[in-house]
């Protein structure tokens, strides 16, 4: 994103990294790596009472035997069943996801109509997507909107040129890159109404009648490192002046009034389908960009001091940006090929061959490089790899070895 840096001029020569003595790296699996986001999003896992339980994958909650109707057939259902399949698909594509799934439960014919929808196939195969949407009772967008978020993976922010949005804003079904989601207050500052609020029932009814986008968020653990906890269900509305009077933030936190916590309840991590390996992929981080900022020192009159919060640092791209394979190719086109450098102490780092072009602000990626420095370094150095699409677990921060990873995963799954 082009709006989150301190200065748009190249750092001086003494702050650049020379690749003259480095080794060119052409192996995609070497110069990229995977790492989880630090927060627990909707759909990752939920802990209403400190008991871990992964959110269920989507399943139809009924069983069809032959062509028997599951519910008493009335005239409306019979009429709908006689419609041509193409017309029925058009009708269903502009209905919200909850209504489409409810419609599928009315009869065997309706179920087959839903299953044969191209939009349904795209949404249902995306990991955790439909299960999360139903769990949050998302009714503010159509099934076609949701399918579009699966097929068009670009960040939808007007100021962004990222080819991959790895976060899905669930109030209105908007796909965003992590940086845009975190910096845009429209998505980052939702308005919250806890269930204990007297206005809850009427407010939800009015929202449905007026077409106001909202979610119903269950109790659970969310936010950075999973440290925030929502103790009761709540309604989550998009930010904006219209909903300011319904702002009850602070009543449902156990760690103070941290507005960022509720942002995670209204978004989920969403992968893309990688044609190269025929699987859903959460995106790749650049090993050169992920290293920058850690070792940079700022210069004052007499000595070098360690970099601290608020200090600018020189860089190529943001360390927290995830790329598709095509996006990584464009990234390399912009910043140059990657080289492996062996430093004086024997450690290895990676660098792009082109000079760094900007000064970034430390706060742009402090959650990625400060709160989980040890984990990120271990992943970047490929000492171990986490399974694909595994949500961030607070215990990851303390992972010292591969056996420890295995134990945490077994506990998480069971």
Structure summary:
The protein is an alpha+beta fold. It has 17 helices and 21 strands.
What does this structure look like?
- This protein is α+β, with helices and mostly antiparallel strands.
- A hairpin with a 4-residue loop joins strand 16 and strand 17 (304-306).
- The chain has helices at 28-31, 75-81, 85-93, 97-104, 108-115, 118-125, 129-135, 143-151, 178-183, 185-188, 200-210, 259-265, 287-291, 325-335, 366-369, 373-380, 402-413; strands at 5-7, 23-25, 32-33, 39-40, 167-169, 174-176, 191-194, 214-217, 220-224, 228-230, 234-237, 267-269, 272-274, 279-281, 285-286, 297-299, 304-306, 312-315, 338-342, 348-352, 358-361.
- The longest helix is centred in the last third of the chain and has 12 residues, at 402-413.
- The chain has three domains: 5-34 and 284-383, no CATH class; 44-53 and 140-280, no CATH class; 58-126, no CATH class.
- Strands 1-21-18 form a three-stranded antiparallel sheet, with no helix packed on it. Strands 2-19-20 form a three-stranded antiparallel sheet. Strands 4-9-10 form a three-stranded antiparallel sheet, covered by helices on one side.
- Helix content is 31%, strand content 17%.
Number of strands: 21
Low-confidence runs (pLDDT<50, min 5 residues)? 47-73, 244-257, 296-307
What sort of overall outline do the alpha carbons produce when their principal axes are compared? Answer: globular
Report mean pLDDT, rounded to a whole number.
76
Q: Separation of termini?
A: 39 Å
Helical fraction equals 25-40%
Percent in strands: 15-25%
Strand arrangement, largest sheet? Answer: 1-21-18
Please compute the radius of gyration using only Cα atoms: 24 Å
How many structural domains? 3
Q: Helices and strands: which structural class?
A: alpha+beta
InterPro entries: F-box-like_dom_sf (IPR036047)
Organism: Coniochaeta ligniaria NRRL 30616
Protein name: F-box domain-containing protein
């Amino acid at each position: 994103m082009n709006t989150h840096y301190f200065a748009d001029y190249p750092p001086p020569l003494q702050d650049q990294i020379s690749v003259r003595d480095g080794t060119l790296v052409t192996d995609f699996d070497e110069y990229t790596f995977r790492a989880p986001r630090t927060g627990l999003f909707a759909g990752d896992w939920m802990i209403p009472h400190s008991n871990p339980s992964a959110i269920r994958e989507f399943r139809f909650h009924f069983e069809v035997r032959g062509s028997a109707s599951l519910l008493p057939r009335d005239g409306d259902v019979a009429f709908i069943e006689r419609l041509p399949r193409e017309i029925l698909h058009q009708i269903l594509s502009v209905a919200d996801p909850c209504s489409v799934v409810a419609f599928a439960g009315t009869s065997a014919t309706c179920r087959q109509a839903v299953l044969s929808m191209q939009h349904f196939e795209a949404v249902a195969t995306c990991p955790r997507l439909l299960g999360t949407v139903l769990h949050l009772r998302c009714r503010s967008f159509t099934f076609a909107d949701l399918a579009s978020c699966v097929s068009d993976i670009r960040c939808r922010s007007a100021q962004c040129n990222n080819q991959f949005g790895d976060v899905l804003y669930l109030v209105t079904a908007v796909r965003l890159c992590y940086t845009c989601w975190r910096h845009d207050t429209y998505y980052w500052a939702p308005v919250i109404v806890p269930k204990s609020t007297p206005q809850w029932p009427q407010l939800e009814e009015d929202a449905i009648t007026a077409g106001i986008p909202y979610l119903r968020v269950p109790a659970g653990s969310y936010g950075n490192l999973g440290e925030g906890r929502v103790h009761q269900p709540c309604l989550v509305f998009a930010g904006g002046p219209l909903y300011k009077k319904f702002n009850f933030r602070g009543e449902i936190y156990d760690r103070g009034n941290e507005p960022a916590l509720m942002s995670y309840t209204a978004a989920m991590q969403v992968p893309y389908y990688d044609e190269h390996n025929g699987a859903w992929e959460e995106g790749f981080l650049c090993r050169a960009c992920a290293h920058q900022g850690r070792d940079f020192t700022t210069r004052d009159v007499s000595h070098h001091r360690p970099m601290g919060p608020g200090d600018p640092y020189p860089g190529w791209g943001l360390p927290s940006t995830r790329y598709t394979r095509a996006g990584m190719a464009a990234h390399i086109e912009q910043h140059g090929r990657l080289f492996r450098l062996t430093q004086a102490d024997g450690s290895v780092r990676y660098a792009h061959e082109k000079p760094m072009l900007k000064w970034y602000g430390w706060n742009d990626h402090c959650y990625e490089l400060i709160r989980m420095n040890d984990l990120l370094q271990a992943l970047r150095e490929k000492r171990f790899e986490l399974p694909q699409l595994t949500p961030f677990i607070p215990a990851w921060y303390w992972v010292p070895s591969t056996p420890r990873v295995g134990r945490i995963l077994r506990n998480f799954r069971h």
